[in-house]
Amino acid sequence: MLNKANREIPMDLPALAGREVYQGEFAVEPKVRRAGRPVAKYNQGGADKLLSSIDEAIEKTGLTDGMTVSFHHHFRNGDYVMKMVMERIQAKGIKDITVASSSLSPCHDFLIDMIKDGTVTAIETSGLRDALGKFLTKNPGVLKRPVVIRSHGGRARAIIAGEVHIDVAFMGAPTCDRRGNFTGMQGKSACGALGYAMVDSHYADKTVAITDNLVDYVYPYSVPQTDVDYIVEVEAIGDPEGIASGAVGFTKNPVQIKIAEMAAEFLDQAGIIKEGFSFQLGAGGAPLTVAKFIGQKLKEQGVKAGFGIGGATGILAGMLEDGLINAIYDTQTFDTVAAASLHKNPAHIEMSASMYADPWTDNMTNYLDVVFLGATEIDTNFNVNCMTDSNGVLMGASGGHSDTAAGAKCTVITCPLVRGRLPMILDSVQTVITPGESVDVIVTERGIAINPRRTDLIERFKDSNLPIYTIEELQKLAFDLVGKPEGVTVSDKDEDVVAIVEYRDGTIIDVVRKPLD
């Protein structure tokens, strides 16, 4: 079936039975009620939630074959929790587990062996990278159903709507008290905001907090004791060097600097930079460096932005410290500078993944004036891919890309025209993560393209000194430089679908097929 993003979706796949295809960014109305965890009876004298081991937690939660376990990815490539838990599940001989993690990093490549022995038979996530991504791309059928890729907002929506039922959430807790209140702002494994853990802990049947810093009292907390059933204390839950860098800085790449400078100038000429405007910056070099130029524009105009949304970085925290913005709303924190800001600055506000981007609630993305996002490739219909590489291999993340693009009044994609001698503007992207109807502007180092849907912007920039092109003209510039790529050949067999890409509302926007090259 052809969806509105012009992608052919094999609806006869068993995994897609009863599902709907993508029909537009705001086409689907919710028809469900919020799910809820079972009511548990606790000892009125004060239940002792502290257990002796992960093994005991597995037994107490009743985890058995065929269940779904969840993890959060706030520790990024420094995560120890998933491996500790999954190794004990494997040792107990428990099989047919669905791993529903908010994202997966290279440190989770150990799952390959667990897939091979049947411990893990399904994966639902936002991101896949490195050896695990390659393994799943090249081995369709190794899982009992294709991987499900969701955006951060889409995942929160699916959990809250009951589409993803978490039997046990194993949550890394950098600092936890004996009643189960925990936070990511303190401890040797501090990671900052715990926006994904908030949703999982609240809706899972059972939640286990795994901590390496057990204290008497935690306040403020990210997750309350009412959402935690058991606590396990271990030696370490993560590697601080992998959890967060010292500070995510501005890019030194001249191409990215040029893109960032041009993007900020576009914003200024569009009249978006003004008192109280709100924005989000992607985590890449060019989107982050836009902050530097936004800051300069704010100072020149003598105005102050309203708020920034994170994934927070030290760059965003610096803007708050310098009085350039009023507040930061943070669902995950990328570096130690931003984590410290969250802990000490009351205007740096932690929020759940639902408050961030759940399309079926009053989320913060709907209040964005502008968002800057990156891309691995774009096509002439303004569709964006940030999930698969030029060979069709799973190597990225859906993240909040489609969420923020749909919510913001202006979505700006920053991307080099050519990357590694490959043109970034194609006739058709390999995988659609964000549909073209959500994208307004593309900024490259060679020029800017405005989506024809935005006739207001086209009119405003008809006499601009900026290099404004059509998307086809930008594509031709790239082809003239490096030639037209042949593209990736993929299998057309339904059994070779390796991943299903959900749009944020749960409809199917694309599938990832096994490459034949």
UniProtKB/TrEMBL annotation:
A single cellular component GO annotation: cytoplasm
A single GO BP: acetyl-CoA metabolic process
Cellular compartments annotated: Cytoplasm
UniProt keyword list: Cytoplasm, Lyase, Transferase
Listed InterPro entries: Citrate_lyase_asu, NagB/RpiA_transferase-like
Enzyme Commission code: 2.8.3.10, 4.1.3.6
Broad class of where this protein is predominantly found: cytoplasm
GO terms for MF: citrate (pro-3S)-lyase activity; citrate CoA-transferase activity
Stored Pfam families: CitF (PF04223)
Reactions accelerated catalytically: citrate = oxaloacetate + acetate; citrate + acetyl-CoA = (3S)-citryl-CoA + acetate
NCBIfam families to which the protein is assigned, alphabetical: citF
Name of the protein this chain belongs to: Citrate lyase alpha chain
Taxonomic source organism: Veillonella criceti
Encoding gene, per UniProt annotation: citF
